[in-house]
Amino acid sequence: MTAPRGPGARTLDHSEILDPSRVRWQIAEAARAEWLAHALSCEPADRPAAEAAISALYELVDQPPPTFVWVDSPGAAAKLVPPSRTLSAGTPTWLESRLANSLSELRARLNRRIDFSDHSSRRPVIPPEDPPEALDRGLALDALLAHGVRGALRSSVLGSVAATIRAELREPIGLGWYGQHEAHWVAHYDAHRRIGVHFGQEPERVFGLWAETVRSCGWWWPRDDVCVLTERPVVVRTEPVPGSAYGELRMHAADGPAIAYPDGWRAYAWHGTPVPPWVIEDVTADAINTERNIEIRRCAVERLGWDGYIERAGLAFVARAPDPGNPDSELLLYDVPRAPGTIARRLLLAVNGSVERDGTRRRYGLSVPPWFDDPVDAAGWSYGLTGAQYTGLLRRT
Q1: CA dihedral 29, 31, 36, 37 (to 10 degrees)
Q2: Rounded to a whole number, what is the distance in angstroms from the first to the last CA of the chain?
Q3: How far is CA 280 from each of CA 1, 157, 300, rounded to the nearest angstrom?
Q4: Could you give the count of Cα atoms lying within 13 Å of 156 in the half-sphere of its Cβ?
Q5: Could you read off the pLDDT of 21-39 as tens digits, one per residue?
Q6: Cβ-Cβ contacts under 8 Å for 145 (sequence gap 6 or more)
Q7: Per-residue pLDDT tens for 363-385?
Q8: What range(s) does the DUF6745 domain occupy (predicted)?
Q9: Cα 202–203–204 angle (5° rounding)?
Q10: Which of 74, 114, 313, 362 has the fewest CB within 10 Å, making it most exposed?
Q11: How many whole angstroms separate alpha carbon 287 and alpha carbon 299?
C-alpha cells in the first residue's frame, strides 16, 4: 500500500539520524500529514478505486459485489440508504454486521502485532511541548504514535469534521463507514508499517482495502445488494486547536459553512462546535434569546460579540464592580427586557477566571434573578455564596 506524498516530511540533521526513535517519529509525522490531507480532501471521489475496494470487502464476507449508488452528500444519502436489517436469534448475520466483524477481527490482529489497545489513545495525557524531546525524556515511541498520530487525527477528523456532519444529519442513517473520515486508525497502522512493522501478507492486503476507501471516497453504507456512497466535500474549513501538541484542527468558519458538498448540502461550526446556520448566516438577539441549547447560545453571542449583543438585545445597564475573585476584571450587570411568557431576569457579564489554551480569557454571561442590584452579590449567588463570602475568595476558577 502506498500513499501520496504530502506536507510533513523534512530533512533530518545528523543528530536525528543517530537517534532511531526520532527518525521513526519523523516518518510517522509524514504519514499523519498525508492521511490528514486525504481526510480533508475536496477533490472528486475516485469512484473506480472505491468501488473496487468495497467489492473486494464484500467478497471477504462471501457476498457478490453490490450495485453502487453515488450521491453528492450525506444529506442526500439519508434519503436513499436502505435501513439495516434487524437480526433475530438464530439467524445468520447480515452484511453490515459481517463487514463490521471482519474489520474488528482485522484491527484486533493488527493491535496484537503492535501491542496496542484501542482505548489507550483516548486516555488524557499531558501533551509534550516537543515530541522529540519527550522521546529523550523516556516517552515510548508507541505511546507517541498512539497519541500523536491516531489520537490527533481522531480528534481532528472523527471528533470534529465527522461530528459536524453528524450534528447536521440529526438522525443516524444506520450502520456505515466514514470513508475519508476514518483516517485516524488507518494512519496509525500505516505509520507502524512505515517504520518497519510487518503485519503479514493477508492482514496487509485487507488493511489496504479499507485504506483505499479512506483515500478514495466519502461516507458509505453497505447493504446486501446495494452500496450507497457519497462524494467528497467541495469545502472544508478548519482552524488550529489553540495549544495543541500535534497540530490538531477543529471545524470553524465565521462567514459561511464549515463544510459543503457538491449538491449544496452544508454544515456549520464555530470554533469546533456544530451550530445551526443562523448562528453564522443571520445571527440576531431574538434568536439568541429563544435558543435553549446553552452551547449554541454561547457561540451565537461570540459570533455577534458581547457589545453587539447587548446593544441589539436592548439590555439596560444596571451596575459595574471590580471582580474580587478575578483581579483586573470587572463584573457588569444588565437588565434583560422581559418577553411575554418569560420570567424576569438580569444578565451578569464576567471574565473567566481560567486562561484558555490560546492565552486569552473568555467573557461569558450568567442569567441571575432580577432582584440583584450589586454585581458582586450576583456573582456570589452563582457559586451559592453571599457577596461577602465571594469577596473573601482569593481567586475563583
Answers
A1: 120
A2: 50
A3: 41, 22, 8
A4: 33
A5: 888 999 999 999 999 999 9
A6: 25, 28, 188, 191, 192
A7: 888 889 999 999 999 988 988 88
A8: 178-392
A9: 90
A10: 362
A11: 12
Distance CA 150, CA 144 (A): 9
Burial-class residue 148 by CB neighbours within 10 Å (0-12, 13-18, 19+): buried
C-alpha of 392 from chain center: 40
Question: What per-residue string of b and e applies to 345-380 under the rule 16 or more CB within 10 Å gives b?
Answer: ebbbbbbeeeeeeeeeeebebeebeeebeebbbbbb
**CA 190 – CA 33 distance, rounded (Å):** 12
Amino acid letter, 60? L
Strand spans (E) along 212-256? 220-222, 226-230, 235-236, 238-240, 249-251
What are the beta bridge partners of residue 355? none
Q: Which has the closest alpha carbon to 116: 51, 181, 192?
A: 192
Q: Where are the alpha helices (DSSP H) in the chain?
A: 14-17, 20-39, 47-60, 74-77, 95-114, 131-136, 141-145, 152-153, 163-169, 183-194, 201-216, 277-281, 285-290, 294-304, 306-313, 375-382, 387-391
